[in-house]
Design a protein that fits this description.
By secondary structure, the protein is of the alpha/beta class. It has a single domain, classed as Phosphoglycerate mutase-like (Rossmann fold, 3-Layer(aba) Sandwich). The protein has 6 helices and 6 strands. Strands 3-2-4-1-5-6 form a 6-stranded mixed sheet. A hairpin with a 2-residue loop joins strand 5 and strand 6. Helix 1 runs parallel beside helix 2 and helix 4 packs across helix 5. The chain is globular and about 45 Å long. It holds the Pfam family His_Phos_1. InterPro entries: His_Pase_superF_clade-1, His_PPase_superfam, PGM_Phosphatase. This is Phosphoglycerate mutase. One of its GO terms (molecular function) is phosphatase activity.
Amino acid sequence: MRTIVYLIRHAESLYVEGQERERGLSEQGKSDAARIKSILQKQPIDLFVSSPYARAIQTIQPLAEVQQNEILLMENLRERTIGNIAELSFVEAKRRVYQDFSAVFEGGESSAEAQARAVGGLKLLLEKYEGKTLVIGTHGDIMTLLMNYFDCQYGYDFWQSTTMPDIYRLEFKSRMLAQVRREWEI
């Protein structure tokens, strides 16, 4: 039995210090969310699940509305907290936590911790909704860490290559990743 999971990385959201959960989409992000709707609206989708962060919810909301579905919020899919990176650039900090999955900055989560949290949520969904089609609104790190769990080729370089938004279609057979295809075109 095959289960389809569309991992949708959130669209553009302007960074606002201290508003990780509340910040919504930019005008470009709203436009891209409408484009996601047009790309996937003909797909029969059984379940919409999202990180509780506003930008992830708002990215899949137009598609959920056209499909007349509600969005289930899952705390396990929230973005990774990188922590206090001190003198490092954001990109260098990301490189370090992907090179060493146990590396953690003060107040943050290691890749191993964030991956275990997110994969735990995905495994529950794969078990409960086997044979269904799911849309998951998520974040760049969490999307990468979920895919990395099933195939180690998805790491720092993959994370860096993703766009906001981005769509990856994952096909699972018996809860094993069988195929990955990018659905978003720039």
